[in-house]
């Protein structure tokens, strides 16, 4: 099955000489949740803006469900829903009128039954007659999502969808995104909340300084680049790590009360048994130990720092 989105050598250079995107290649599969991660200024919003037609690329090609965004703009744009980071709605319009108007902008015929289902799915039905100015920040963001889905797009962009919302609403948003995927909508999100990508994404892309530096399935990424940590709670605080333990990558923290060893869980020899034997030989005792795995945030930081 062909990808719903295909970007080839997409480049954006400004007259100032700034290269915001440098030959970006990216393919998005139908029905997946794709998280695009990157630090501020990495090019995330520029890439989305080009795909959605609000910024013109310098060179390259973008196909949305087979439609070239340059030559077949209307066909491509009709497939896309966009929820920008900034909330921009007519604050004096009602929820119902706002969503219906957005549907009409795409030339779709009125469909009150569809709009009702959409508002119910977003927990907005009880607010349908309310003016936007009367809504909370979280409700306004739900209205933005309803607007983006009003014309029944197949590809939805969420640019920092939970920025500034509380934890409970963030989890509601996660559930909503999953429900959209079950309805066949492909979702691409940019986020600063690494746990958001770790919770929801099927695949993860990392962009830095206008270049895609990695795209992989989240699970595969965690396996390949993830590390595990063994943390030992020492019986007696330690001022420095003994030279006899130099063969292991150890860190001392918590005022010398914790010794941490980072290792590759997929390695044939993790080094843990030999480390514990050496500590026993040296008379270094511990009263507790635990192992933890790297988070997606740890991996992201290492990738960006390595590409700097």
UniProtKB/TrEMBL annotation:
InterPro entries: AAA+_ATPase, ABC_transporter-like_ATP-bd, ABC_transporter-like_CS, ABC_transporter_ATP-binding, P-loop_NTPase
Keyword Aminoacyl-tRNA synthetase attributed: no
GO molecular function, one term: ATP binding
Start and end residues of each ABC transporter domain: 5-234
Keywords assigned: ATP-binding, Nucleotide-binding, Transport
Domain of life from the UniProt record: Bacteria
PANTHER family xref list: ABC TRANSPORTER ATP-BINDING PROTEIN
Name of the molecule in the record: Multidrug ABC transporter ATP-binding protein
């Amino acid at each position: 099955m062909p990808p719903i989105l295909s970007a080839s050598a997409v480049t954006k250079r400004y007259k100032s000489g700034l290269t915001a995107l440098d030959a970006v290649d990216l393919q998005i599969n139908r029905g997946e949740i794709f998280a695009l991660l990157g630090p501020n200024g990495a090019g995330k919003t520029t890439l989305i803006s080009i795909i959605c037609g609000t910024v013109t690329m310098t060179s390259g090609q973008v196909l949305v469900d087979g439609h070239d965004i340059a030559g077949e703009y209307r066909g491509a744009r009709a497939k896309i829903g966009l929820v920008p980071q900034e909330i921009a709605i007519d604050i004096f319009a009602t929820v119902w009128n706002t969503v219906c108007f957005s549907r009409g902008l795409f030339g779709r015929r009125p469909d009150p039954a569809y709009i009702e289902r959409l508002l119910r799915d977003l927990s907005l039905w009880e607010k349908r007659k309310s003016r936007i100015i009367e809504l909370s920040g979280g409700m306004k963001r739900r209205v933005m999502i309803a607007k983006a889905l009003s014309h029944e797009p197949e590809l939805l962009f969420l640019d920092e969808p939970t920025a500034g919302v509380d934890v409970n609403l963030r989890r509601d948003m996660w559930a909503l995104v999953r429900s959209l995927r079950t309805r066949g909508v492909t979702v691409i999100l940019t986020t600063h909340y690494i746990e958001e990508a770790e919770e929801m994404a099927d695949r993860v892309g990392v962009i830095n300084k206008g270049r895609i530096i990695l795209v992989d399935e989240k699970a595969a990424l965690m396996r390949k680049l993830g590390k595990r940590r063994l943390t030992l709670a020492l019986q007696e605080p330690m001022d420095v790590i003994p030279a006899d333990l130099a063969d292991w990558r150890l860190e001392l923290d918590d005022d010398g009360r914790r010794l941490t060893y980072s290792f590759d869980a997929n390695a044939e020899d993790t080094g843990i048994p030999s480390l514990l034997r050496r500590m026993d030989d040296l008379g270094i005792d511990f009263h507790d130990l635990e192992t933890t795995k790297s988070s997606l945030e740890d991996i992201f930081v290492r990738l960006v720092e390595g590409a700097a």
